[in-house]
């Protein structure tokens, strides 16, 4: 009960509401995460209280700065063990989520989580962003893209933004160097169709830790030549 109360209190500190069913889903997700972590590398964070703060609350902090309308489509690029999208999905049952990861074992884990938690309107896809970003079923189909700590913005932008439709947003959960990253990526983001960039500061409950959320508006279609292969992106950022 102590863990459940900590989760509820964290949501309260963010000004967010959570019901009993959602609390149960978070607890089951944590159990699955720690169970499967013994078989594969999912997270270095294994203390349950730390999972609540550094994974769950960190992920849902997006809800304090971005509005998710009913029925929109969200893509999570390089989702790993499901962050931030599984916590967001628990809180947003009427929003459609697509989770992308390049490791088949992790996608298998996500399928188990989706099934055990009874989540609907969500799928996990195995594949590389540079390939999936050219798939007409996925390219330019999403209202919001989210990603957490996947890569520096020069790389992350090119891998993620082609999935987002004109008029959509890309939301990146980043560390303290986000402004430096955005300055280097600014020209490339413009080439990808993005112009307006806003950065929000988030303080994690129960800690002195802060992180940044970059909110990037996509105002134009991404040229079809993007995304390039990651090796080309790394050697020659936009």
Structural notes for this entry:
By secondary structure, the chain is an alpha/beta fold. Helix content is 41%, strand content 22%. It is built from nine helices and seven strands; from the N terminus they run αααβαβαβαβαβαββα. The chain has helices at 2-14, 20-37, 48-60, 85-91, 104-117, 129-132, 153-160, 178-191, 230-235; strands spanning 73-77, 96-101, 122-126, 142-148, 164-174, 194-203, 210-218. The chain is globular. The mean pLDDT is 94.
Distinctive features:
alpha/beta; 41% helix
What spatial form do the alpha-carbon principal axes imply? globular
Profile the largest sheet.
7 strands, mixed
- How many beta-strand segments? 7
| Rg for CA atoms | 17 Å
Number of helical regions: 9
State the helical fraction.
40-55%
The residue-averaged pLDDT reads 94
Separation, N- and C-terminal Cα atoms:
50 Å
In spatial order, strands of the major sheet run: 3-2-1-4-5-7-6
Order of helices and strands: HHHEHEHEHEHEHEEH
DSSP strand (E) fraction?
15-25%
What structural class do helix, strand and pairing data support? alpha/beta
Helices and strands, with pairings:
Blueprint: H1 2-14, H2 20-37, H3 48-60, E1 73-77, H4 85-91, E2 96-101, H5 104-117, E3 122-126, H6 129-132, E4 142-148, H7 153-160, E5 164-174, H8 178-191, E6 194-203, E7 210-218, H9 230-235
Parallel strand pairs: 1-2, 1-4, 2-3, 4-5
Antiparallel strand pairs: 5-7, 6-7
Helix pairs in contact: 1-3, 2-5, 3-4, 7-8
